[in-house]
Amino acid sequence: MSNTMTGAQALIHALESQGVDIVFGVPGGAILPAYDPLLDSPIRHVLARHEQGAGHMASGYAHATGRVGVMVATSGPGATNLITPLQDCYMDSIPVVAITGQVATHSIGNDAFQEAHTWGISMPATKHNYLVTDAADIPEVVNEAFHLASTGRPGPVLIDLPKDVLAATMNWHDPKEIKLPGYRPSVKGHPLQVKAAIDMILESEQPVLYTGGGVIRAGGAAELRAFAELADLPVVTTLMARGAMPDSHPLCLGMSGMHGSYTATTAIQRSDLLVTIGARFDDRVTGEVKSFAPDAKIIHVDVDPAEIGKVRKADVPIVGDAKAILGQLIEVMEKKLGGKRSPERTDWHEQIAEWQRDYPLKFDQDPEGPIQQQYVISELHRLTGGDAIVVAGVGQHQMWASQFWGFERPNTWINSGGLGTMGYAVPAAVGAKAGKPDEVVFAIDGDGCFQMTMQELITASVEGIPAKIAVMNNGSLGMVKQWQKLFYHERFSATDLTNHTPDYVKLAEAMGCVGIRAERPADVVPALEKALAINDKPVVVDFVCDPDAMVFPMVVAGGSNDDVIMSMTDLPDPAGPQPEDVI
């Protein structure tokens, strides 16, 4: 290979050097120079039908594989269409690199055709971003971008490349050793803080190991389980941490918070110690902060020092990588115990078992119908043995999927947690399936979410990426409708979608997919079996579901986690104070 090349060739070579095997994108004028050398590269390009779809594909790929996902777009509207997936990845700590074209350097600031101030617009939605003005900088910039995206607290990084920089010539050189002043993310925790944490755990009587998505991002699921077993700690997960601890494990209490299990939420509320690993005390977990776990001391482990103390003061703060610090905690705990068992907290475990018996997650499926979404999810889990990657959109179906799918391993639950991006599931499932072609990838989506990005099924069909989509068709924006029913006196404003338009089976077939419909409970298992048997095309299954079903348990936004609503009979007086937040 010649040492002299264009900036565009250098970009593709730099991506190859990072081990990139697939990128998701949409070409356009400013980024066009990069698409020419891409044609000769072993890197696969997946042509999305919308740049937002490309971004969510890169996110789904990163979720499923643990590697950095790559999205590509042109300048102006191409770049601005990436802002939603970038912000989504930023909030959920997903490692991605966005590559955007930009107008020529001499045109920047002149309102040129398809110009946008991408560097400025994307700044608050990225961990870091670059505007490259010299082709010679491309090797270093790409190397730094992948390093930043994948280390410390993972997140999105954007590289903006003017068209003339891509066309300019440069001499390729291997990037220099990365030296970023001010960026030295901690890995190991301070030994004295780790020791203090173990002392606090051994003294506690009602501890809970409160686990967030940081454990999965750090690859620390095995260490989490080992530490929970060693210290005999009940484990509660956030929405983003599903699969970090096997749901079948006796210490696993499931998800806590707004729609978490009664046991998980109440265990946190009654705890005297929260051992918080890779979680950020999100408002969907804490509810009203002043009443959250009022008697608990806090150990907070996080790689991002800005998260510690942001919502809840930590008694023992530990900055560092979740996997590394769990290893330290195990080592110190083993020394402290000296071969003995951890403290028996019989009363605490008996209390937890009582809550589990008295307040289980449950649903009723009338054989005559209508179809309950929980039933679809439970039957899909049974038929696959839980051996699948599950992708969700945002809303009721997302909460039911988290509640009723038994997660046994990390990186098998992909959803939009922090930003709550409707339309996430279809493109994220395409990205996950592209990254994990030998896994069953099944998206559980709502009809409202599905209609936002369903065009990416064309991508799946044309590219030969056989993801499967279950459309939970309740004819409405279900979660919004639930809130209107509960808190707006059943004044259903702008939530009706109808369950007959579009015809999802015909739509699927028009996009090159297989379309299946289930209208009665008896149709559910045959429809799922047929979908699972088809592996050469994407599949869409239209489940015509109960339009009036609501998600419980529920804690009202901004309310106390002491007030868990288990059913309609537990609802507060509709004439009383209304929640300040919605959805």
Please explain how this structure is put together.
The protein has 583 residues and is an alpha/beta fold. It has three domains: 4-171, Rossmann fold, CATH 3.40.50; 191-358, Rossmann fold (3-Layer(aba) Sandwich), CATH 3.40.50; 373-551, 3-Layer(aba) Sandwich (Rossmann fold), CATH 3.40.50.970. The strands form four sheets. Strands 3-2-4-5-7-6 form a six-stranded parallel beta sheet, with helices on both faces. Helix 3 (51-65) packs parallel to helix 5 (83-92), helix 11 (221-231) packs parallel to helix 14 (322-337) and helix 16 crosses helix 17.
Give a topology summary:
Layout: E1 4-6, H1 7-17, E2 22-25, H2 32-38, E3 44-47, H3 51-65, E4 69-73, H4 77-80, H5 83-92, E5 96-102, H6 118-122, E6 128-131, H7 138-150, E7 156-162, H8 163-167, E8 169-171, H9 191-203, E9 207-211, H10 213-217, H11 221-231, E10 235-237, E11 252-255, H12 262-270, E12 273-277, H13 283-286, E13 297-302, E14 316-319, H14 322-337, H15 346-358, H16 373-384, E15 389-392, H17 396-404, E16 413-414, H18 425-435, E17 441-446, H19 447-453, H20 456-463, E18 468-473, H21 478-487, H22 504-510, E19 514-518, H23 521-533, E20 539-544
Parallel strand pairs: 2-3, 2-4, 4-5, 5-7, 6-7, 9-10, 9-12, 10-11, 12-13, 13-14, 15-16, 15-17, 17-18, 18-20, 19-20
Antiparallel strand pairs: 1-8
Helix pairs in contact: 1-2, 1-7, 3-5, 3-18, 9-14, 11-14, 16-17, 16-23
